[in-house]
Each structure stands twice: as structure tokens, then as C-alpha cells.
């Protein structure tokens, strides 16, 4: 599986299908998180999004651009509501190690208008 395929599969299963346990396949146990709103490690990621999916069962991320170079992948995506309106724009950056997501950075931009 290429790094791009890894990211695509992870986003589909984890973020869009809300299969929190899928992180076990795609995320390293000692996952390093640079978003202060989510704790360190795979279990903290799973816990944070298990809660998110309960409070927002329509949560979805649509990949717009995916760029991979060596062990780094950058993803530009939109968080969209069920009608397809943009709630937030996101850039996620990952470092891949041994076929798993090892480190994560992000930038979020809430949508002022839902287009």
C-alpha cells in the first residue's frame, strides 16, 4: 500500500465510516500528536474521535488534495455537513513510519460561509 492509499483508506474507514477500531491498522501505537486538543498515542486519538462521532454522527471529511513525498503526506480536506456544505477546511500533515501514521500536524479554518 502506498502512503497515499494508506491515507485514503484511513480517512474512509476512520473519519467517514466512523470505525474507530480501524486506527489499529493505520496508526502507530506511539502516534505523536501536535494538535493540543487530542492526546498522545493511538488510544487517545481513538477516544477523542469516538466521542466526536457520538456528538456529531454526520461528521465527514472529503479529501480535496493529497500530496505524498518520501515519508510525509499532506492532505487538504473539507469537513462537510450532510447537504455537502463546508463546515471547516483542514490541512493535515502526517509522517509515515513502517506503514503506519507516526506523527500528525494540522491547521483548521472554520468556514465563514457554508459553500
TrEMBL record:
One example of a Gene Ontology biological process annotation: polyketide metabolic process
InterPro entries in the record: Cyclase_SnoaL-like (IPR009959), NTF2-like_dom_sf (IPR032710)
> Which range is the signal sequence, renumbered to this chain?
none
Q: Which Gene3D superfamilies match?
A: 3.10.450.50
Please name the Pfam families in this protein's record.
SnoaL (PF07366)
Q: Which PANTHER family match?
A: ESTER CYCLASE (PTHR38436:SF1), POLYKETIDE CYCLASE SNOAL-LIKE DOMAIN (PTHR38436)
UniProt protein name = Ester cyclase
What organism is this sequence from? Candidatus Blautia faecavium
What does the organism's lineage look like at the top? Bacteria, Bacillati, Bacillota, Clostridia, Lachnospirales
